[in-house]
Structure formats: structure tokens, C-alpha cells
Specification:
- By secondary structure, the protein is α+β, with helices and mostly antiparallel strands.
- The chain has one domain.
- It is built from two helices and three strands, in the order αβαββ.
- It has a three-stranded antiparallel β-sheet with strand order 1-2-3.
- β2 and β3 form a beta hairpin.
- The N and C termini lie close together (about 10 Å).
- About 10% of the residues are buried.
Length: about 70
């Protein structure tokens, strides 16, 4: 799994719904990659914009390489 894979999964949360058809994160208005949001960093990440106007930046940093036998 790569940083890009995690970023893609987080971006998909904007479109995910639960069994009742309601959004998983009801207050989420949009999810944008750092790259698309114009955030200048070498890290991958996602910006969540919420209905109340708040914004959250989630940075994705690989903390360890997988064990060779994994």
C-alpha cells in the first residue's frame, strides 16, 4: 500500500454512504488532494471542507516500511 492509495481512499469518503444511504461523514462538503488544493508540500494529503465552513488538512506520511515477509 502506498501514500497515494491512502490518499485515494480518503478522497472517496466524500462519496461513501452507509446502509441507510446517508453520507458516512454527514458534514463533509468536499475532499480535495493537497496537490489539487495547491498546497505546497512533498507529502500526500487531503483537505476536508465541512458544512460549517471548517477545514481539516490530513497529511499522509509513511511511518515504516513493511516487513519483507509481510
Amino acid at each position: 500500500m502506498t501514500e497515494h492509495d491512502i490518499e485515494s481512499a480518503l478522497l472517496e469518503l466524500e462519496y461513501q454512504t452507509g446502509e441507510d444511504g446517508e453520507p458516512i461523514i454527514e458534514a463533509l462538503v468536499s475532499a480535495t488532494s493537497f496537490e489539487d488544493a495547491g498546497i505546497m508540500t512533498r507529502n500526500r494529503g487531503v483537505v476536508f471542507r465541512m458544512k460549517d465552513g471548517s477545514e481539516f488538512q490530513i497529511t499522509i506520511v509513511r511511518s515504516a516500511m513493511p516487513h519483507p515477509e509481510a
